[in-house]
Amino acid sequence: MSIIAFLLSFVGSAIFKITYTPRKMRKYTVKWSDEIGKTYPDLSYGEGAANKFDLYVPTDDSKDTYGLIVYLHAGGFTSGDKSDDAKMLQWLCSLGYVTAGINYTLAFSEENPNANIYTQSMEIKESIPSIIKEAEALGYNIDRMAISGGSAGGCLALIYAYRDAKDSPVPVRMVFEGVGPSSFYPEDWKCYGFDEDPVAAAAMFSVMTGQKITEEMFGTEAYAELTKEVSALYWVDENTVPTVMAYGVYDKFQPYEASVRLDKALTEKGVPHEYLVFPHSGHGLQNDNQMYVEYMTKVEEYLEKYMSE
């Protein structure tokens, strides 16, 4: 029952804050037109049916090099689509970046019984060289990148930025994300009762990671090793990329407590980061509009600082 509750509620988390545009947030949208940029939809990066990406390029193609920003969609790892983030990607492209939204094989379904967070993260890793190659074929030479996302997309963005940056074809300069799970400590996942039901926690985390996990493993090095590939927290070190992250105190879909762990790790390692806590909001960051403006302001500041030519 805990697993079913998790799946139902996390699927409901697909609607992320950026789908709502309060007045103060309208500066972070743009009326997309040929004067701003062009969209190349449904380009392939692999053999899977979901291995597609949408590429947005600015009309100004006169620069020697461009920064790439990838935004990964929300949907609890089980739903969502790259088109959900078109407005965000268009706005980022209007700032002069090449941008891309990526689809990945959705998990926990009869059609894709072996898909999980790890396989999704590997698809994201596989997609980046294809995106850069396609951009260069269109005349946009990519020499740096940032990655972002919301919810499940935030989780996958953190994994790429922390785990896979060393293998990226271009330097990863920063990551920005909202409400993405960064670790899987059962005691943090109180929203599903996993702190009091280790059997359910083990079953759920087995499905999410694609690893065989038992309740006896919790708190051991073996558990840490099995979940490391999908836990951005475990990859934090002195070389971790600058990070902007936003979390709601009343999040019922993923544990706010995990974000406290992540903030602590980044602080201890001296990683430049902004940790924005939304004191009245849940997973959708819906009750703190001024805080959301602050989050986007920090995103702009970090883009200017770390993604400039």
UniProtKB/TrEMBL annotation:
Q: Name one GO molecular function term.
A: hydrolase activity
Protein name, as recorded: Alpha/beta hydrolase
What Gene3D superfamilies does UniProt report for this protein, alphabetically?
Answer: alpha/beta hydrolase (3.40.50.1820)
Pfam families associated with the record:
BD-FAE
Q: List the InterPro entries.
A: AB_hydrolase_fold, BD-FAE-like_dom, GDXG_lipolytic_enzyme
The UniProt record lists the BD-FAE-like domain at 54-266
Q: Which UniProt keywords apply?
A: Hydrolase
